[in-house]
Amino acid sequence: MDIAVIGGGFTGLTAAYTLTKLGHRVSIFEKESFLGGLAYGFTFPGWEWHMEGAYHHLFTNDNSILSLLQDLGLKDDLIIKRPITASLWHSVMYQLDSPISLFTFPGLGPVDKFRTAILLAFLKVMPFWQPLEGITAEQLLVSIGGKNAFTTIWEPLLYGKFGEYAPKVAASWFWARIQKRTPSLCYIRGGFHTLVEALRAVIIKNGGTILTSTVIHSVKRTSADSYTLSWGSNKQTFDRILLTIPTPAAFKLIPDLPSTDKRYAALSAIPHLFAQTLILETDAPILKDVYWLNVTDRSFPFLAAVAHTNFMDKTHYGGHHLTYFGNYLPQGHRYLSMTAQELLKEFRPFIHSLSSGTRYKILHTHMFIGPFAQPVHTRHYSQKIPPITTPLPSTYLANMDFIYPWDRGTNYAVELGQRAANLIVKKTI
Ligand SMILES: Cc1cc2nc3c(=O)[nH]c(=O)nc-3n(C[C@H](O)[C@H](O)[C@H](O)COP(=O)(O)OP(=O)(O)OC[C@H]3O[C@@H](n4cnc5c(N)ncnc54)[C@H](O)[C@@H]3O)c2cc1C
Known about the structure:
By secondary structure, the chain is an alpha/beta fold. About 30% of the residues lie in helices and about 25% in strands. The chain contains 12 helices and 20 strands. Helix 1 (about 10-20) runs parallel beside helix 8.
């Protein structure tokens, strides 16, 4: 079979890898000049490794991607560490990533700490998300954890991330976040780019084709069982099409899709946020020991500060320190049209306040924008997800809107790519 995969992120790459292994002819079409999608990596002269445009790590229970690493002979490239996660409270960073750190956190009284511990333990042991998708995250957090803990810890994070959508986020989304989290985190030697490169190489070796900087501008059905894809002045006919691009982009390419099934119509109503990171490369650390800082002070213009070089050693990046400042934003937000320098001007006083007087020089700035990077899991989201096999013949759609109840992640992109490939060849897993 000739199969077109539109989108060269982890879903598209894994699907293409699975299909070429089974002997199918696969072409990947990727609009950017690089592969990896939201997990793409960049590098600079003097750096030994790549680093992602948006902060990335794996959990030790991310079994699908860990198996893929093993399958590709990259098992020894997995690094496991336990970096510090903290929260900013009243301008001070408090480690908040274990039962002991919760009990020493001064922002909550004993009863609130106890209720928060019960909340987290309940979500960790509760194996079912279904009963939680009918209530909101806010209802769950307030009813079990209490109002004080909600206001101090959860509200700034929930509202900072989802903005106007925060009151609509289902409790099942929060369940998934707590269920999945492991105390230790993993990274891939050389960055996620190592895995992207390994997938690229094996797809080519298996006879696949990868076209980057290629925007598909039309998909036309040319017979009962074939489609012609057009890009630039080129055309090619395929037996199957797998779209792994965000839903709004897929619907633009195939406008009939939303009207084929009421769940496809429901999918078009799912709100998405854009992700944006400002990355500072500095000669000294901005955060002293902390890897991940949740900014619970809503006067700050960013949601998290992530010091990548407090997780991976700075020697892999020319001895420089790398820190992300990240946000999730609605499409059209003014930050999304700013340059890195303009964003830095807005963020600078706040970044400075995190460095506790350490002097650092900014050597480079980078900026990353991930469009449609976070679907909002509203109540009863499970009823809005259509099947990957669309009602249109030989056409499949698989993107992060489909991985519910889990939140987006490369592990689920790998799983989804495998699922889509197996559906295409009609072998279900
Ligand atoms: C801020 C942030 C932090 C994250 N942190 C983590 C983390 O720590 N760990 C983790 O595992 N995951 C993390 N993720 C999630 C992870 O990056 C994604 O779940 C995963 O990369 C999604 O892969 P995908 O292939 O489904 O989609 P994408 O990566 O979005 O790939 C879709 C691809 O389609 C391409 N495309 C779009 N339109 C077209 C078109 N018309 N024609 C051709 N190509 C097109 C895009 O350029 C892109 O390459 C994070 C994501 C963000 C945004």
